[in-house]
Amino acid sequence: MKINLANIKKAKKLLNKNECVGVPTETVYGLAGNAYSNIACKKIFKLKKRPKINPLIIHYYSYKNLIEDCNINKNFLKLYSKFCPGPITFILDLKKNSKISKIATNNKNTIAVRFPSHPITRNLLRILNFPLAAPSANLSSRVSAVSSADVKEDFGKKIKFVLEGGKSSIGVESTIIDIRNKPKILRLGGLENSSIEKVLNKKVSTRYNTSKISAPGQFKLHYSPGIPIRLNLKKVRPKEALLLIKKKNLSKPNYYYLSKIGNLKEAAKNLYSTLRKIKKHGYQSIAVDKIPNKGLGKTINDRLLRASKFRKKK
Ligand code: TXA
Ligand code: MG
User: pLDDT at position 210, please?
Assistant: First the structure.
């Protein structure tokens, strides 16, 4: 990917003025603002129409920048040295004298931190004097953005600038792990749980399947393209699209597949763009064929399950 320094400088200038900027990451695009600034963080919540109680992830260049804001530990360092920069977010204890905006953390004494690997956003983080608060760059409860065009589709002229970074290579959000005491995975994501377990050398518990919301962001309806989704089906209703993991020999115009050969990494990368495409093509609902529940297939199924909670307003 070619790095356009003029664009990075433009983003820096806007961020210095407490404006919000769309930034590419390897998982999904983020809607970024100065994490030290209440003004910038308030703008993020307002633009996204995000409930105030749902705290933001703070993005850093390296863990060296992190030490003033939170306490780290051995397990954090193990995972950091193996996977960062990359698609993993850590929940850590916030330090009392941290400069992070209380709006971003919703006054909690914990913080979610992440080190994105996308070269453009890394270059930006390197030259800023502050970390970036950045939730996914979509309207709250809707499908995340995996291209600059997706960000513009959701926010139009309401945001001044989106840094172009091509299509996100992973396509689903980071895996969130609470690493303060006994490690716990709070959100399935672009890094497989088994890879984390290998590094920590133990089974890690998960909290995302409970009906109780442990991370405020685990709201039941999420990642929705704005039309109903029905799961594990082969029979399609009129005006409905069928979402498949793999290309079928007998294809129909309303069949959309996530990967030609059923590769789960490719499928994750294409998930959100395909959901957006189906909606744009005018279908009124989506039936989803069974998707293998292993590796990144688990993350895909998690997103589709939450998206299936969508109900049309009467
Ligand atoms: O891949 C990603 O993580 C993307 C890119 C842009 O970095 N970001 C992202 O942000 O997905 P967002 O805001 O859509 O999701 C952040 C999640 C929410 O579920 C939120 O509740 C959770 O992180 N979170 C933030 N702070 C937390 C905390 N202190 N404890 C538990 N969960 C937290
Ligand atoms: Mg999100």
Answer: 43
